[in-house]
């Protein structure tokens, strides 16, 4: 990264809507692809060739970039299929192809010589020697292994200054080296490096000891409160280290994981890192601001992972008590792309007030009419619904998340504006708990 260029913020695009949200909430670039040969088969199915082409056009119209994932590992029988797929993707003119295999690097260079190649984190590059091999093959950027240190990134850049480096800064961590895991394949037949990991490391396990001589098996009881999520890695959260990462001057792109995560995650996490990056360059960096927003999302607990700490120095990178927990907030609704209507994501009734989360750079008009009122309190906007009315004029006392009707806003809002409330209020409205904290997503019995 040169001194006069800002670092790139790269966000996940699991489908067309999430791609647009990420771009509107501050991403410089997004990554995604169709299900074919992508490491997110379930996410990729939400893109077909037409919608992915629409997404690329949408991004390019706004001066943003799209990187296409072709990052699974081919079997011999699939090589011709890979060639055909890369040729089709090249016709859409993405800004880069993300690949994992040296052989696919060669295929991409031959079939799409004008499209830059980014090497996936699945290749597990952690040193300058391996980086140089891929650079000599024609790779423009390496998405380094999640297990790498910032010092090792500096070492790679010192040897190959023209090679771009991309690091993960937020999202799910893998139990194994960047996806090189066979637990899911063993238990369910779903192969992680074919894009269909079942996330078996997130499950609770019971541990037994077996004596083959006597045939006796004992269940090992763990300490109370420790739990049995023995392989469940916490989520990466490097927001508090963005200043340190950018001070190094060797990182070209900051990457957020999460193509299968929610539209809320795509918007809020991207916006938090957008602010962190922009604040760094204006010398107004304050980690607490970004952490407050990131804590609104569901998570497995957070860890600052290994970029600034060696793995053997970490003893708090696993979440032993739960698979996933609530964040501090719950999405109530999402405004449509044209900004004239909203759709319910969580039970909302006439009289409810919800917080307005705006896309980056957007503004809102204060209004008070028969449908609702928008107020500003300490720089934050709130919408109070006086009526819940569908676009065809049907008035409802309450609306639930299963209701897909477009609902009237008291005034147009920026497209993809998020409406949210605190989790305690959300759970209380649904009668799940009387009082909540960001705990296990298994609700308390009523």
Automatic annotation (TrEMBL):
GO terms for biological process: proteolysis. It comes from Sulfurovum lithotrophicum. Pfam families: Peptidase_U32 (PF01136). One of its GO terms (molecular function) is peptidase activity. Keywords: Hydrolase, Protease. This is Protease. InterPro entries: Peptidase_U32, RNA/ubiquinone_mod_enzymes. The keyword Phosphoprotein does not apply. Belongs to the peptidase U32 family.
């Amino acid at each position: 990264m040169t001194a006069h260029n800002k670092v790139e913020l790269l966000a996940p695009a699991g489908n067309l809507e999430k791609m647009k949200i990420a771009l509107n909430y501050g991403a410089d670039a997004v990554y995604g692809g169709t299900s074919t040969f992508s490491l997110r088969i379930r996410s990729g199915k939400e893109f077909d060739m037409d919608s992915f082409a629409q997404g690329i056009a949408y991004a390019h119209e706004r001066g943003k970039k799209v990187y296409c994932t072709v990052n699974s590992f081919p079997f011999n029988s699939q090589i011709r299929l890979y060639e055909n797929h890369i040729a089709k993707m090249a016709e859409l003119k993405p800004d880069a192809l993300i690949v994992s295999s040296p052989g696919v690097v060669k295929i991409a260079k031959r079939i799409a010589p004008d499209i830059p190649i980014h090497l996936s984190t699945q290749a597990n590059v952690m040193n300058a020697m391996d980086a140089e091999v891929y650079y000599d093959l024609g790779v423009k950027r390496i998405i380094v292994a999640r297990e790498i240190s910032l010092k090792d990134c500096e070492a790679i850049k010192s040897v190959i200054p023209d090679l771009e480096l991309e690091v993960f800064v937020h999202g799910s961590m893998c139990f194994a080296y960047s996806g090189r895991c066979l637990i899911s394949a063993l238990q369910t037949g779903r192969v992680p490096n074919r894009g269909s990991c079942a996330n078996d490391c997130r499950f609770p396990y019971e541990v037994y000891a077996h004596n083959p001589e006597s045939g006796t098996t004992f269940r090992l009881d763990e300490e109370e409160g420790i739990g049995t999520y023995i392989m469940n890695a916490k989520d990466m959260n490097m927001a508090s280290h963005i200043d340190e990462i950018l001070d190094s001057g060797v990182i070209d792109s900051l990457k957020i994981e999460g193509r299968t995560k929610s539209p809320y995650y795509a918007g809020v996490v991207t916006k938090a890192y957008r602010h962190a990056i922009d604040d760094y360059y204006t010398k107004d960096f304050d980690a607490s601001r970004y952490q407050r927003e990131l804590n609104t999302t569901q998570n497995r607990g957070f860890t600052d992972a290994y970029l600034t700490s060696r793995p053997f120095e970490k003893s708090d990178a696993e979440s032993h008590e739960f698979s996933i927990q609530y964040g501090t907030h719950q999405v109530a609704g999402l405004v449509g792309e044209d900004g004239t209507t909203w759709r319910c994501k969580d039970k909302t009734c006439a009289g409810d007030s919800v917080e307005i989360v705006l896309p980056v750079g957007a503004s809102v008009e204060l209004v008070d009419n028969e449908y609702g009122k928008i107020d500003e309190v300490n720089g934050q906007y709130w919408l109070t619904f006086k009526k819940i009315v569908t676009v065809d004029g049907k008035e409802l006392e309450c609306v639930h998340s299963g209701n897909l009707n477009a609902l009237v806003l008291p005034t147009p809002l920026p497209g993809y504006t998020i409406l949210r409330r605190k989790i305690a209020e959300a759970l209380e409205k649904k009668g799940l708990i009387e009082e909540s904290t960001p705990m296990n997503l298994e609700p308390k019995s009523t």
